[in-house]
Amino acid sequence: MLFEPKMQLVWVNGPIGRLTDFLERCCLDQGTVHPARALDNMNAAAGYAEPETDGEWAALVARLEADAGDDSLPLTHPCEEFSPRQRQLLEELEHQLAESDADLKLLNDQLTLCRTGSEQFNQFSGLEVPVDQLEQCRFVQVRFGCMPQRGLEMLQRDYSKDCLLFLPCGQNEQGCWGVCLTPMVEAARMDGVLAELRFEPVHLPGAAGTPAQIVENLGRNIRLLEAEKAAALDHRTALWQQAKPWAAPLYALACRKARIEELRRCAAVRGERFFYCVWLRQPDLEAFEAACRGLGQLNLLPDRVLARRAWEQETGRSERK
Predict the structure, then answer these.
(1) How many domains does the chain have?
(2) In what order do the strands lie in the sheet with 200-201?
(3) Measured on CA atoms in the order 189, 192, 198, 199, is the torsion positive or negative?
(4) Rounded to whole angstroms, what are the CA distances from 28 to 22, 23, 79, 100, 278?
(5) Domain annotation covers residue 13
(6) What's the confidence (pLDDT) of residue 167?
(7) Tens of pLDDT along 29-44?
């Protein structure tokens, strides 16, 4: 009985100068052609090596996708080449986008500071004394922080006569948020007491006014920054939309070339010739051979030994008697 596997492994070899043409015309647009890494089936000690690829097109794909941001690149026909004019346009676009991204980063950093500060000061909204005035005390050490309920009970039970004053300002599931006031001369001893009470100090950013006033001011700043961020995002989107007519065909070209680079890594090279292997469905073998003959200078050899081994591993059967 003749062995006819579902898939056929075919070897192709030819001049190294024909490798790109072979990949583009016989492998790239053929969904039924499945390349295999040639070096996995060859002896590297015999002088076979992977062809060199610089990854230029894959890098261009990454650049364009980064430039597009959250916007999608439309499917379109690729342009003929990456022209000097397109290079210039891309450099100008990336310079403008870099400036826009720097502005957005600055706005995001400021928003993060404002939101974090608002959350922190909001924990002490019950305090009616300006924070900046408290921090100017010369003889009293001021600590803002959170004390668990158990620590608060210990403070009231065991340290009520110590020179430690805790001003509750708010409470949540973490505990009671407030301000600890101790004389400077007792600060070192009180540090040990607060550690025993599991008091967790927090560092508040510099601000003037009561916590409620600070939260209100930060809220206004957040709204202004969000409006500026929305305008900056609109500006970035407009820059990309203006570039789409020439960037989309360039992206299609870059994706095609990057795929060829990826397929090229499956080849093996020795001297001035390349060696390539692909898996094909039996009904598609004739069309593949015709495409290779159309290029010329290519030799094809169906590999029945490797195909038989793969078939035996897949099915668990053997034709050997």
Answers:
(1) 2
(2) 165-172, 175-183, 140-147, 200-201
(3) positive
(4) 9, 6, 17, 37, 12
(5) yes
(6) 84
(7) 666 788 888 888 777 6
Please give the backbone phi and psi of residue 274, each rounded to the nearest 5 degrees, phi first. -110, 155
Of 4, 10, 16, 54, residue with least CA distance to 35: 10
Q: Is 232 helix (H, G, I), strand (E, B) or coil?
A: helix
The single-letter DSSP state of residue 209 is S
**pLDDT of 220:** 95
Q: Quick check: is 101 in a domain?
A: no
Q: Which of 140, 141, 144, 118 is nearest to 131 (CA)?
A: 144
**Alpha helices per DSSP H over 159-272:** 187-196, 211-264
Half-sphere exposure of 50 (CA within 13 A, CB side): 13
Which residues form the domain of 46? 7-51+265-315
pLDDT tens digits, 295-321: 888 888 876 544 445 444 544 544 443
For residues 113 and 205, the answer to whether their CB atoms sit within 8 Å is: yes
Cβ proximity of 103 and 203 under 8 Å: no
DSSP string, 67-102: HHTTSPPPP-PPPS---HHHHHHHHHHHHHHHHHHH
What is the domain-level CATH number for residue 178?
3.30.70.2750
E strands in 262-298: 268-270, 273-281
pTM of the model: 0.67
Gap between the Cα atoms of 189 and 159, Å rounded:
12
Helix, coil or strand: residue 169: strand
Which residues sit opposite 127 in a β-bridge? none
Q: DSSP assignment, residue 173?
A: T
Q: Positive or negative CA dihedral for 238, 240, 244, 245?
A: positive
